[in-house]
Amino acid sequence: VLVVDVAAIAGNDLDLTSISLVREFLALNDGMAESSGKEGGLSTNDTECRRCRVVIVKSAGLHAWARRLVHAGRLAAGTAPEYVQQRLLPPPPPAEEFQQQGDGPAVGGGEEGITRSRSSEESYLPPVIVAAVGVDEYRRAAPFAVRPGDAVLEVGCHLGKTTALLHDMATRPDGHDGGGGGGCLGIDIGPRIVNGARKRYPHVPFHVADAWRTGDLLRLRERFLPSSEDGGPRRWGYDVVYVDVGGLSGSDGLLEAASLLTALGNALEPRCIVIKSR
C-alpha cells in the first residue's frame, strides 16, 4: 500500500504534479520488487505480490478529477455517479415555453429559451470526463454526451466516421423548434486525412488543426459552427469535445492525456469531454 500526501512532498497540489509523483513512486516500488525477487530467488508470483496493490493519495486536485471522471461502460449501464448524470442530462425546457396565448406561438419559445450551449455570462464548471477504451465504447457514449443543438469538436477525426455520427446527433430535431442546429467539427493534424474525410462526408465540416493550439480551435468554432445572431445569448466555446489521439498511448500517455484534457477544458469550456485512451 502506498500512501502519498502530495502537498507535503511537492509543495503544491497540482493535478499533473500529483499524477507524476505517484507514477514515480510506483516505478520505484516496482523496481525494488523486481530487484529483491531476483536476489532472493523468488518466483514470478511472489515478486508480483510485492508490487504495490493500493495507492491512497491526499490530493484535492485528484479528488476533483475523480469526481467528474467516469468510464463509458458505466455511463451506458446507468451506473455513473449521480453528479455525472446530473451534468449530462439535458436541462428541462422552460415552463413558459408550453404556455400558449390563444392560438399564438408559445411564450419563451425563441432561441433564448432553448439555447443548449453555455452563454458567456454563465459560470464555468470543469467538464465531465468520459473515458472510453476502443472505438465502440467511444461512439456508444455519444447519446449520453451530445444533445441537439450542441457545438461539438472531435480532435483526431481520422476517417471522419465518428465526426459524421456526432454531427448528425447535434443537428437532429430536439422537439422544441423542429431543428437541432449545432453540428460537429472534425480536426486532424494531417492534411491528407482531413481531405479524405471531406470526400467521405461532404456535409460535415473538417479542418486541419493542432489540438494544443486552443485559440485556433475557438476561431474555428466561430467559422464553422457560428453562434446565433438573432438576439439569443452568445454561445461560448464547445459543448462537447471528443478526443481520439493515438499518440497519447505511449509511455508518457497518461501525463500527455491529462495535460491535453486540462488545456481543452480550460480553453474551450465544454460540458463534457470524451476521450478514447487506455
Task: Summarize the structure in words.
The chain is α/β, with parallel strands linked by helices. It has helices at residues 6-10, 15-40, 44-49, 60-67, 72-77, 82-88, 111-114, 135-140, 142-145, 161-171, 191-200, 214-224, 253-268; strands spanning 2-5, 55-58, 69-71, 128-132, 151-155, 183-188, 206-208, 240-243, 272-276. The strands form 2 sheets. A 7-stranded parallel β-sheet has the order 3-4-9-8-5-6-7, sandwiched between helices. A two-stranded parallel sheet has the order 1-2.
How do you describe this structure in short?
With 278 residues, this protein is an alpha/beta fold. It has helices spanning 6-10, 15-40, 44-49, 60-67, 72-77, 82-88, 111-114, 135-140, 142-145, 161-171, 191-200, 214-224, 253-268, and strands at residues 2-5, 55-58, 69-71, 128-132, 151-155, 183-188, 206-208, 240-243, 272-276.
The number of distinct helices, counting runs of at least 4 residues, comes to 13
Largest sheet: 7 strands, parallel
- Helix coverage percent: 40-55%
Number of strands: 9
Mean pLDDT: 79
Secondary structure class reads alpha/beta
Measured on Cα atoms, how large is the radius of gyration? Answer: 22 Å
Shape: elongated
Strand content: 5-15%
Report the span from N to C terminus.
23 Å
Note the quaternary state here: single chain
The H/E string reads EHHHEHEHHHEHHEHEHEHEHE
